[in-house]
Amino acid sequence: MEQATRRRGHRSRALLAVVTAAALGVAGCDAVGGDSPAPSAKEGRPSPKPTPVWDTSPESVAAVGDSITRGFDACAVLTDCPEVSWATGGSEEVDSLAVRLLGRAEAAGRSWNHSVTGARMADLPGQMARAVRRSPELVAVMAGANDACRETTAAMTPVADFRADFEEAMRTLREALPKAQVYVASVPNLKRLWSQGRTNPLGKQVWKLGICPSMLGDADALDAAATLRRETVQNRVEDYNEVLEEVCAKDRRCRFDGGAVYEYRFGTDQLSRWDWFHPSIDGQSKLAEIAYRTVTAKQP
């Protein structure tokens, strides 16, 4: 009897051990220990989206460049008219890049035009140095037409010099404002300007005063020499645009317009009625549209 009792006690203890081990085994699925990693408090939560490098709504704009950005000959003959500048002007007829980004009231106090009529790419580093003093969040650049518009094709800015000057301007900006954004407009199509403006007899007479002679001189001449001269200028403009694109591509906060200004098929309505060379008010508005479209495009 006593022996049977001991056997039953032994079986009870063995059964208890098995039940206990099973219970611990089940509990061990959720326990921390061994090779099991600790559960993360972030599991199940969506990862935060990375902050985009490009801000499509900067809060201040500075412009650098030449007579196009100064609005030269858009309002009156031989006169700057920055009020209609595609980049920073306040004109309701243009709706400049600054106005489209900031609103008219804010643009008046948060945009600055440092462009200079007659400027070439060699002048851009100095303009950029003045622009950075305002700490703009976006710098709009349009330069290069005057580098191609010289007395002769031989006098055009060499491509290597054009590149070096643009790179210096970008360094000047980056040393002062590493996070500022840059919009770079392509150099306009000067050969199209010749083909459009030469349809106006008055325009051709004005060109004889010395406007872009490398392209517009002897506007009616179609001989081999004139054709070669114009092609030489056009090729140089295309080389300049390639430089602008390449240098801009090396900077993650720079956007080139993809050649949109160069490829825009403007007509005489977009040309100044005083010189048939600079943009009219309508032409300035078209430049503003291209700039705004580029600046506000979503990142791929």
Keywords:
300 residues, alpha/beta, five-stranded parallel sheet, 13 helices, 5 strands, disordered N terminus
What structural class do helix, strand and pairing data support?
alpha/beta
Question: Which descriptor suits the 3D outline?
Answer: globular
| Low-confidence region ranges | 1-42
- The residue fraction in helices comes out at 40-55%
Terminal residue distance: 87 Å
Going across the biggest sheet, name each strand in turn: 2-1-3-4-5
**Quaternary organisation:** single chain
Which band does the percent of strand residues land in?
Answer: 5-15%
Would you count the extended β strands for me? Answer: 5
Mean pLDDT comes to: 88
From the alpha-carbon coordinates, what is the Rg to the nearest angstrom? 33 Å
Q: Care to describe what's here?
A:
The protein is of the alpha/beta class and 300 residues long. Helix content is 46%, strand content 7%. Strands 2-1-3-4-5 form a five-stranded parallel sheet, with helices on both faces. Helix 7 (159-176) runs parallel beside helix 11 (224-249). The protein starts with a helix and ends with a helix. The model is unreliable at 1-42 (pLDDT under 50).
Describe, in short, the structure shown:
This protein is α/β, with parallel strands linked by helices. It is built from 13 helices and 5 strands.
Write the layout of secondary structure elements.
Elements lengths: L1 H26 L33 E5 L1 H4 L26 H6 L1 H7 E3 L10 H8 L6 E5 L2 H4 L10 H18 L4 E4 L5 H8 L3 H7 L5 H4 L7 H26 L4 E3 L3 H4 L17 H16 L4
Parallel strand pairs: 1-2, 1-3, 3-4, 4-5
